[in-house]
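Hi, here's the filled form for the chain we discussed.

Project: internal
Contact: R.S.
Residues: 173
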Amino acid sequence: MGFEKLFEWLTQFWEALRPWIIILEYERAVLLRLGRYRKTLGPGFHWVAPWLDTTISATTVANTFHLADQSLITRDGESVSVSAVITYEIADARKFLLEVEGGTAAVADISFGAIAEWVCRHALDELREPKNWPRIATEVRRQGKTYGIDVKRVTFSDITRSKTLRLLGQNPR
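And the returned structure, exactly as it came back:
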C-alpha cells in the first residue's frame, strides 16, 4: 500500500509541474490562466505555466445522442410518442466548455424543446415524412450555436401513435 500511495503522489506532483500539454487531434481545449480565459488550443504540443494555467478539453468529433421518448400532441390532435437521434459536433470549444454547464444536457434540452414545438405545429402525416426532418434539424442547429454546438442531423427513430393516461389527483400506491 505504501509504494502505491507514493507512486500516486509522485504522479500528481509531476502532473502539477509539467510545463506542457498535448492536445489530441480530435480535441480542443481552453487555457485558463489564474482562472481566466486566455485562448483556445488546437491539436498539438503547447507550453503551459505550471500552477498558473489550467486546461479543460472536449472531444470535438461527431457524436450522437439518443433522446428518450416524448409524449406530444400533433396539430391534428393525435397523441404521439416520438424519439430522435441527434448527431452533433462541438464547433466552439470556448462556448461549450465555459458558457454552459453540462454540454450534453444542453444538446438534449434544446433538442427536446425544438422537437416538441415542431411536432405540435405539424400533422401526424407530416411527421412521418423524412423529407420534412431537415427543417427540425435547422431549428435545433440554430439553438445549438448558442452553446458552441453544431447539430449535423436530427433523425426520428420512433414516431408512434400513443394513448395518454393521466392520473390527476390520485395518489399512486
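Let me know if anything looks off before we file it.
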